[in-house]
Specification:
about 140 residues, alpha+beta, seven-stranded mixed beta sheet, 7 strands, about 30% helix, about 40% strand, globular
Amino acid sequence: MADLTLLGTAEAAALLSAAPEAARGFLGLDPVTQNAPLLAAELARSGAQVLRSGDVLLGYAPNPDQPRQGRVATTSADPEPLAALLGFLRTYRRCTSFVAEVPDGSAAVPALEACGFTDTGRLPGHVFHSGGYHDVLVYCATEEG
């Protein structure tokens, strides 16, 4: 199982800014268009936590309307760090379901699928960047995943 290290908000924002393409869409953020102070403010506002496993950044944000559901994000196609995060959330946050929203073509898709997430929807033209509107894919998993 991968080791997870909890990051402070400022450090998390700086690391997301340093990996703009891999972190695009990370918990709804866009480090290409948002600077580090804005990223830090958005992470704090949402109650998000960012963790690190090696070079991989992982994110968790609680769903205020469904306390046992977590929004998750990863910057990598490697499923091992994501599996470690999901195990932590199941055990210590008592999460029973998870949602991930990723830009179409995201490198995170293989990690999500390997960890039991299923493609449950597409939000057409949901985000604007690089001069156009782009789809966002919605993935969901339950505690059994």
